User: Fold this.
Amino acid sequence: MSTLARKLLIAGNWKMNLNSAEASELADSIVNQVGTQMEVAVCICPTFTSLEAVSKRVVDSNIGLGAQNMHFENSGAFTGEISAEMLRHLFVSYVIIGHSERRDYFNEDDNLVNQKTIAALEASLKPIVCIGETLNERDSGQLESVIHRQLEGALLGVSPNHADQLVIAYEPVWAIGTGKTATPEDAESVHSFIRKLLSDILGIEAANKVRILYGGSMKPENAEALLSQKNIDGGLIGGASLKAHAFTSIVDSAIKLSS
Ligand code: PEP
Assistant:
């Protein structure tokens, strides 16, 4: 756990799963199990079609609501898109930006990730900006250059004043949905590299305020070891966030490390 005042954040990315009735049921279970604790920040990110229903389930709890994507414009002729203002209207407070699945399947590049990050910050949302290398990039010695390019690209023009709001998720692409996890030591070494880059980009004071989550097959069995690393400030959880018990036991590990 961080020795600085960064509250751990456990975020569930439900991806394209669950209809609104199923999403409401899962949200209810999570609220019942960890909805009143205050030691750890928790957020769940359902599909757009379930946001309104889930918003009503979490409204009186300490569970935050997140979206999985957004457009950078406020409104206009962008068929099929959703703006930050529309998310705010549903009491959304976090938004995942530049997930590797969006970079890969929908051709999102660093410039688009940057535009969305700036729009999210301006709308007072907390962007969870995803970065991470593929196995090929790691094996060919490009890990640091890829992380550097993605982080610098995402944060172009971002003010250090927004550091409290900003969340970075380090998600090695080879660990997402594969059951393969970076070792806690490997993950910590990339997180500490990201912290150093943040310091170069935003200044040291701001860099120490930014939360850096780890994502990639985090589950109850490996959460505590990952979350206890100095620069790992939480987790972005895919598969394990679809089961209330698995997700809340990760939250419990974070609570244990925070108290
Ligand atoms: C993710 O998609 O952000 C993720 C980390 O997925 P999983 O936990 O399933 O690897």
Remarks:
- The CA atoms of residues 1 and 229 lie 5 Å apart.
- Residues 9-258 form a domain with the TIM Barrel fold (CATH 3.20.20.70).
- The chain is about 45% helix and 15% strand.
- The longest helix spans residues 184-202.
